[in-house]
Design goal:
By secondary structure, the chain is an alpha+beta fold. It folds into two domains: 76 residues, no CATH class; 246 residues, no CATH class. It has seven helices and 19 strands. It has a seven-stranded antiparallel beta sheet, with helices on one face. A five-stranded antiparallel beta sheet has the order 3-19-5-16-17, covered by helices on one side. Strand 6 and strand 7 form a beta hairpin. The chain is globular and about 80 Å long.
């Protein structure tokens, strides 16, 4: 009887461990089913959007859902760009004398953290780009420093051959000092997602052709999107924007000309990341009348006053990117 009594605790421990392992395995099997087939529409849309809009991870959504189901779940939550329907950007009254002030704010969204820089003189913004094309991009801090800037954020996206992720093949276009440095469509008059600044410093967002941008007098710009605010109105009116939760980079402008540079950190316990709707709401709160999403994820980086001031999610630190919006010591310049 004593021998059996000594073995009993081991048997109980074994049963507890077996039970816990069963619960863990059960949760791992059933959790995706709850997410992708359950009634939690907002959670489903956020997770499907995060998978679908990260090209390397589309297989996750496709494993559980058809393409038709994916588009049904997230299609209605995307930003609706009014420029596609012919709406034109209302001209801002710029050209006044600006001061050189730069403000830096901490952003706390509860589940995420970030940084916001307010640049009072919009003519100080230029589009910097990698000097290593087509082999590679460069880090945001390197692009800023090489151009003699004092601040900057990553800008346009890229789609490198072989999924190498080095930033050597920019998506869309890059315009600097009024010249088209890169054009994915090689001069064809194709409407492209636009984040650009005119000579006077007005931010242009939405879809435009290179010809249209030249008519607007665009001096600096890259191709990315979607637009989040157009003529003072939000473009995401239902759901979270359809891109899920991730690190984010975005840019906006107030009606008085000040430029808002925003980054949201992600993929950590301290900061999960933000939806496009979150980013839109922050920029609206800070007075943006036009705003657009920039390349996020591992690319999200903000540089200011000699150092990176956010927490990039890439394991190696800063990721190499094709372009960055650079804040010059005074309006114009750069290379």
């Amino acid at each position: 009887m004593r021998a059996e009594g000594k073995k009993a605790p081991k048997s109980v421990k074994r049963r507890i461990i077996t039970f816990l392992l069963f619960q863990l395995i059960f949760a791992l099997i059933t959790m995706p089913l709850y997410i992708f087939y359950g009634p939690f529409e907002e959670v489903k849309a956020t997770l499907v959007g995060a998978s679908w809009n990260t090209l390397n991870h589309q297989y996750i959504a496709r494993f559980f859902l058809t393409d038709q189901a994916i588009h049904r779940i997230i299609g209605g939550t995307y930003a609706v760009d009014p420029t596609e329907g012919g709406e034109k950007l209302q001209k801002l009254e710029l050209g006044k004398e600006y001061n050189n002030e730069i403000e830096v704010y901490n952003i706390d969204g509860g589940d995420f953290e970030g940084k916001l820089i307010v640049v009072h003189d919009p003519t100080r913004i230029i589009a910097g780009y990698s000097s290593l094309f087509p082999d590679s991009g460069e880090t945001t801090s390197r692009i800023v420093k090489r151009n003699g800037g004092i601040a900057g954020i990553n800008a346009g996206g890229f789609l490198d051959r072989g999924w190498t992720g080095t930033g050597g093949s920019p998506l869309g276009f890059i315009i600097h000092d009024g010249k088209v440095v890169v054009d994915q469509y090689e001069g064809r008059d194709v409407k492209q997602e636009t984040v650009a600044f005119t000579e006077e410093g007005m931010l242009i967002v939405g879809k435009h052709t290179i010809s249209q941008l030249k008519e607007y007098g665009v001096k600096e710009g890259v191709s990315f999107g979607p637009p989040l605010i157009v003529n003072g109105k939000p473009t995401i009116k239902k759901g979270d924007g359809g891109w899920g939760i991730a690190p984010r980079t975005a840019i906006g402008q107030r009606k008085t000309g000040e430029v808002l540079l925003l980054v949201i950190d992600g993929r950590t316990l301290e900061s999960f990341g933000a939806t496009l709707r979150d980013v839109q709401d922050i920029l609206l709160e800070y007075g943006a009348v036009n705003a657009a999403n920039l390349d996020g994820g591992s690319s999200t980086t903000m540089y200011y006053n000699g150092k990176v001031i956010n927490k990039p999610s890439d394991k190696l630190g800063e990721r190499t990117v094709p372009s960055a919006f650079v804040v010059m010591p005074e309006g114009g310049g750069g290379k």
